[in-house]
Amino acid sequence: MSTPQNLEIWLRGPIPGVPPLLQPVAHALLQARDELNAAMQEFPPTLLNERPAGVASVGFHLQHLAGVLDRLLTYARQETLTEQQFAAFNAEVPPLSIAQDTVEKLIQEFNNQIDKALAQLKATDEATLSEVRGVGRAQVPSTHLGLLVHAAEHTTRHLGQLLVTAKWVQSLAI
Question: What CATH number should be reported for the domain holding residue 69?
Fold first, then answer.
């Protein structure tokens, strides 16, 4: 039986190689990638820094999506953040360059991070999911599963904000 491509990712079946308990995380991340890529195809770079009513800009969300996913997955691997990750975090403050290729570069960074996340999910032993993982410099306790689920949840939260803001700023530009 073939699966229609117009179905949401979670309705298309299991993602090959991803452990059963992590399928929802993979589905959410892949859905976010599909939606972001579709919504940003024609997004004008000149609107990246627009903040109607003071909301976070599309540019901020585009930067933050890849960066926070990278950081959360680092903690899930029980690693500390690198200086490069701290620098990327500190750079998540608009305004962004409005060069013609800025949007494409940010989308590609997000897509690459989703690919890394899927590889990490595939390499995850389900027996480790209840193990404690520290978050941040204070090493606030979570679990391996908690971090992975939060990575997907945080991604979808910021994607939703990005999608609404993108539509809003585009409507104001007409």
Answer: 1.20.120.450
